[in-house]
């Protein structure tokens, strides 16, 4: 999902999302596209949904207009799942990312430091002071709370383009934006191994620098082993690659408490068990996405 500012720094945001499910028979055959969705959302400067449309079209989605991006949007779109919005489709994940991508989007301007005014830094410092306890990275005493209003940048890292030259089908076509933009990227691979389901996934928030190179502020990868019966999480390895504050990785110890839980419940149980100082918003998003597995696996064109 890309976030851009067609009207400039303090104007409306436009979110452009694309998601798909594909099946790879083997390396000699073309991929099979099982599902494809697009999403376009216009968000007002004060973070309300002004316009929203999806591909293929779902008429009910227009009812989300007027909702705040935070504090109501998730309940709004979840009420449509199964009532026009296909259950566990790429569209559901795109809708869920409207919240996180909007919240993180302002960070994209940090790669253009000359555009950040002293007044904005002071205002941001005040907001940071009120965020104590919202997540592991902002727990009491965190270095994040001592920031002077500058956007976090020193712990970020240059990252390569998503599509790999040797795997042209690995990603759908990705558009590169020349101006300020934020991109939230996800990928999840699923296969059978020794009568268990193996999942490898990545999660990344990144932005384009003035020189055209891409820099990431959040990046996780995880590997999960899941039972065929009940889709129970048997094993989990989480690797934090890029995070903005030294305290952020403390969320991992709590995340491993999800082992033994059933994946279909993750969309709810992650939000319940990994709240506030026990969780990282971005890691939680990556974990909740695992709840899609049963639907994805049931649609794969092979028999277990």
TrEMBL record:
It comes from the Bacteria. InterPro entries: DUF2889 (IPR021312). It holds the Pfam family DUF2889. This is DUF2889 domain-containing protein. It comes from Halioxenophilus aromaticivorans.
């Amino acid at each position: 999902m890309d976030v851009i500012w067609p009207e400039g720094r303090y104007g409306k945001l436009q979110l452009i999302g694309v998601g798909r499910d594909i099946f790879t028979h083997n390396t000699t055959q073309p991929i099979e596209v099982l599902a494809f969705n697009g999403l376009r959302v216009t968000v007002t400067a004060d973070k309300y949904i002004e316009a929203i449309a999806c591909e293929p079209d779902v008429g009910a989605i227009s009812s989300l207009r007027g909702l705040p991006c935070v504090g109501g949007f998730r309940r709004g779109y979840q009420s449509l799942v199964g009532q026009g919005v296909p259950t566990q489709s790429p569209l559901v994940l795109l809708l869920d990312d409207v919240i996180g991508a909007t919240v993180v989007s302002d960070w994209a301007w940090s790669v253009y430091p000359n555009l950040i005014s002293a007044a904005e830094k002071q205002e941001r410092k005040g907001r940071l002071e009120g965020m104590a306890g919202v997540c592991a990275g902002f727990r009491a005493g965190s270095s994040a709370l001592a920031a002077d209003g500058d956007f976090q940048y020193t712990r970020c890292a240059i990252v390569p383009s998503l599509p790999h030259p040797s795997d042209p089908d690995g990603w759908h076509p990705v558009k590169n934006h020349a101006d300020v933009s934020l991109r939230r990227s996800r990928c999840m691979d699923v296969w059978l191994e020794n009568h268990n389901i193996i999942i490898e996934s990545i999660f990344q928030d990144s932005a384009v620098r003035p020189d055209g190179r891409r820099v990431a502020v959040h990046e996780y990868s995880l590997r999960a082993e899941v039972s065929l019966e009940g889709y129970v999480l048997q094993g989990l390895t989480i690797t934090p690659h890029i995070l903005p504050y030294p305290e952020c990785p403390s969320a991992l110890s709590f995340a491993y408490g999800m082992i033994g839980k059933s994946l279909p419940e993750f969309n709810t149980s992650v939000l319940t068990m990994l709240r506030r100082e026990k969780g990282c918003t971005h890691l939680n998003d990556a974990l909740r996405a695992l709840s899609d597995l049963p639907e994805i696996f049931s649609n794969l064109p092979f028999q277990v």
